[in-house]
Amino acid sequence: MVVTTIDESTGAAVGDAVLQAGPGGSLMHHHRYVSGVVTIHEQHRSAAWRDEIAKGHKSRDGSWDAAIEAAEALAADVDARRARGEEPDGVRVWAHLFDSPLGEAVPIPAGWFDGYGDLRHGPRADGRYGRLGRP
Fold first, then answer.
1. Domain locations in the chain?
2. How far apart are CA 118 and CA 41, in angstroms?
3. Which strands sit side by side in the sheet containing 129-133, from one edge to the other?
4. Whole-structure pTM over 0.70, yes or no?
């Protein structure tokens, strides 16, 4: 775990952070009051667009020659579609929310990080930790 001293009056770190092993050499520390962790993901819409086009350009037999032929056909198809103005702009952003399994923290409210593609993970009714679906 990383340990540093915090000045309570300013909220700023004081001194250098230090990597400190826990009991038994563990580098993990269970923080009882952390409600969860959110990972933010970003993908250019053009990357998803190209991935979708690539699904139609598979190697016919798995040989190097067929792979090169498929790659060249894909490049030509993408170039033609770009010339017609079909390539989308912008980025898609989504979040994965991992609720704390420790139960002592204030839960992250339902409805947070509930955009398109967002997923929530946490303790399930069967007692296991896993994907819960959209928040």
1. 1-30
2. 9
3. 36-44, 91-99, 119-123, 129-133
4. no
**Rounded Cα–Cα distance for residues 101 and 40 (Å):** 20
How remote is the C-alpha of 71 from its chain's centroid? 28
Backbone phi, then psi, for 61, in 5-degree steps? -140, 5
Q: What is the DSSP string of the chain?
A: -EEEEE-TTT--EEEEEEE---GGG------TT--EEEEEEEEEHHHHHHHHHHTT---SSS-HHHHHHHHHHHHHHHHHHHHTT-PPPSEEEEEEEEE-SSS-SPPPPTTTT-STT-EEEEE-TTS-EEEEE--
pLDDT in tens, 73-114: 999 999 999 999 999 999 999 999 998 887 677 888 888 888
> Could you give the percent of the chain with pLDDT greater than 90?
46
Query: Given a cut of 70, is residue 27 above it in pLDDT?
Result: no
State the CB neighbour count (10 A cutoff) for residue 109: 9
Mean pLDDT on 47-68: 93
Residue 134 token pair: 């959209």
- Residue from 43, 50, 89, 85 nearest 71 by CA: 50
